[in-house]
């Protein structure tokens, strides 16, 4: 655990030191669980958005994208169930005065049980070597079975209690398991109570005439209320999807773990509208498609797993999370939900407008069912950043910190580094910079030794360093250094655009999906 905490601290420190993420309003001592993306963070974030948008909208001829407003009519949130049901179970520790989500305390307890099971598996793997049959061991080892059975019992009881709003049983379960405040060890808990997560605001110039609004807690409703507008203007037949990237806001009880859980965050969502009765087939299809999209990033298959929901939301008939192994354990990265026809039917009821589709093949009108894919952009940023941040010991015994980002996502694609600014090297480097900047985000740097400049570029994940020396002025070649292999080769300046494009083009990622 201490090692995991150290890794996470390094991630947070590196993100700030190299211009990826800063605490918001830092000169005023910050604002809890709100962060700003710095110059490199903004570039990486935008590249992640591009990867998602290209894969979702550009590669699918039956998916289109929109950008709906953050402010929406307040009745939308009544129809969606957020006014009445968008709550988290809150519990306070009487001694430490700290506040926690009761369900997260129990989920963290179960995660520790899974860690124990994994340790048993790892010990057996070392003991038996190549002869080890992991599947057989997991299905027969008494300790592994005991840990996993206990997890299952706890999570099923938690799901049942939350579904029945039996908050007393949630507290009883915490006490039975002797779960303590993770910071102080105190087990002196208050009763569990529900806490609505929506931020309220007002619309209007005069307070007495202002309309009460909410900052949207999710982006999906902007898609649902525009379903007919998009369907009619795009002329798409079912099945078809509507994608969106946008900000959402939640007044989290416990906002923690850096950018993993924030009060202002971005979602990348797609709602796929399908004929009733076909939704579970499309649900399974999108589960695999979304996993393949993540795997194309090359972060390691072992870092992903599916978690099927025990407790379904009021709108769903199937739901699963793609969980990722963050420095603090496996946590939700993306949700795939079969939302039935709940949303469109609810908006029909509350608005009095028909939101139906006429199916020529079936010769009938119906309210479409929906399969949703929803990934947290900030969580995905953290998954990529924390996994790609590595400390390496080189052959000569020296060390370097390198951010092995997929080249298409790298904030800077190439750095132009003249050995020195004088003797015309600076001017030649600037000429290369000015030529490449129309196609790529490149930088020019001439301060410090070339070795220090290499290290700085490694630390922000730049795939290529281009070194200009005296020979460049006569033979028009430069030294091209690869971030991952650190191999250096002499290449003509005229080939730079092609070489950089071949490695950093989004095609490299998209073709792997």
From TrEMBL:
Binding-site residues for ATP, renumbered to this chain: 250-252, 260-265, 332-333, 376-379
Single GO MF descriptor: ATP binding
GO CC field: cytoplasm; extracellular exosome; microvesicle
Main enzyme class: ligase
Alphabetical list of PROSITE patterns matching this protein: AA_TRNA_LIGASE_II
Enzyme Commission (EC) number: 6.1.1.14
Keyword Secreted: no
Binding site for substrate: 101, 218, 265-269, 372-376
Reactions performed catalytically: tRNA(Gly) + glycine + ATP = glycyl-tRNA(Gly) + AMP + diphosphate
Keyword check for Lipid biosynthesis: no
Aminoacyl-transfer RNA synthetases class-II family profile domain residues: 177-411
Keyword terms, alphabetized: Aminoacyl-tRNA synthetase, ATP-binding, Cytoplasm, Ligase, Nucleotide-binding, Protein biosynthesis
Cell compartment(s), UniProt: Cytoplasm
Alphabetical list of InterPro entries matching this protein: aa-tRNA-synt_IIb, aa-tRNA-synth_II, aa-tRNA-synth_II/BPL/LPL, Anticodon-bd, Anticodon-bd_dom_sf, Gly-tRNA_synthase/POLG2, Gly_tRNA_ligase_bac, GlyRS-like_core
CDD domains reported for this sequence: GlyRS-like_core, GlyRS_anticodon
GO biological process annotation, one example: glycyl-tRNA aminoacylation
Subunit structure: Homodimer.
Functional summary from the UniProt entry: Catalyzes the attachment of glycine to tRNA(Gly).
HAMAP family, sorted: Gly_tRNA_synth_B
Family: Belongs to the class-II aminoacyl-tRNA synthetase family.
Record's protein name: Glycine--tRNA ligase
Organism listed in the record: Chryseobacterium koreense CCUG 49689
């Amino acid at each position: 655990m201490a090692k995991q905490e150290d890794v996470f601290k390094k991630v947070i420190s590196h993100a700030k030191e190299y211009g990826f993420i800063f605490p918001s309003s830092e000169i005023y001592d910050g604002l809890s669980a709100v962060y700003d993306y710095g110059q490199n963070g903004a570039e990486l974030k935008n590249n992640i958005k591009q990867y998602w948008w290209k894969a979702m909208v550009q590669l699918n001829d039956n998916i289109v994208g929109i950008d709906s407003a953050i402010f929406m009519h307040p009745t939308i949130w009544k129809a969606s169930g957020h006014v009445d049901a968008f709550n988290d179970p809150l519990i306070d520790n009487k001694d430490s005065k700290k506040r926690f989500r009761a369900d997260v305390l129990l989920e963290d307890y179960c995660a520790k049980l899974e860690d124990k099971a994994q340790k048993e598996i790892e010990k057996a793997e070392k003991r038996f070597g190549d002869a080890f049959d992991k599947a057989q061991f997991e299905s027969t080892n008494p300790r592994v079975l005991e840990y996993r059975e206990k997890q299952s019992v706890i999570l099923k009881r938690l799901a049942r209690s939350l579904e029945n709003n039996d908050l007393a049983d949630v507290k009883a379960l915490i006490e039975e398991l002797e779960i303590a405040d993770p910071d102080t060890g105190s087990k002196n808990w208050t009763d569990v109570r529900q806490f609505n997560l929506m931020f309220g605001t007002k619309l209007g110039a005069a307070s007495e005439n202002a309309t009460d609004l909410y900052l949207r807690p999710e982006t999906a409703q902007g898609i649902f209320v525009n379903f007919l507008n998009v369907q009619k203007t795009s002329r798409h037949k079912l099945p078809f999807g509507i994608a969106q990237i946008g900000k959402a806001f939640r007044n989290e009880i416990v906002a923690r773990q850096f950018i993993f859980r924030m009060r202002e965050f971005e979602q990348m969502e797609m709602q796929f509208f399908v004929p009733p009765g076909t939704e579970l087939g499309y649900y399974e299809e999108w589960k695999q498609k979304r996993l393949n999209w993540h795997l194309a990033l090359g972060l390691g298959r072992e870092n992903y797993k599916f978690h099927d929901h025990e407790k379904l939301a009021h709108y769903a008939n199937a739901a699963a999370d793609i969980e990722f192994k963050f420095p603090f354990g496996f946590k939700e990265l993306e949700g795939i939900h079969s939302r039935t026809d709940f949303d469109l039917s609810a908006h029909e009821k509350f608005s009095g407008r028909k939101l139906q589709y006429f199916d020529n093949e079936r010769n009938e009108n119906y309210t479409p069912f929906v399969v949703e894919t929803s990934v947290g952009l900030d969580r995905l940023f953290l998954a990529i950043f924390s996994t790609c941040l590595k400390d390496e010991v080189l052959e000569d015994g020296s060390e370097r910190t390198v951010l092995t980002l997929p080249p298409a996502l790298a904030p800077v694609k190439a750095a132009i580094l003249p050995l020195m600014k004088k003797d015309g090297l600076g001017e030649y480097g600037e000429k290369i910079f000015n030529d490449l900047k129309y196609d790529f985000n490149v930088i020019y740097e001439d301060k410090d030794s070339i070795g220090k400049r290499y290290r700085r570029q490694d630390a922000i994940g730049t795939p290529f360093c281009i070194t200009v020396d005296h020979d460049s002025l006569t033979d028009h070649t430069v030294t091209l250094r690869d971030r991952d292999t650190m191999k250096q080769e002499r290449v003509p300046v005229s080939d730079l655009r092609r070489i950089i494009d071949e490695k950093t083009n989004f095609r490299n990622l998209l073709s792997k999906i």
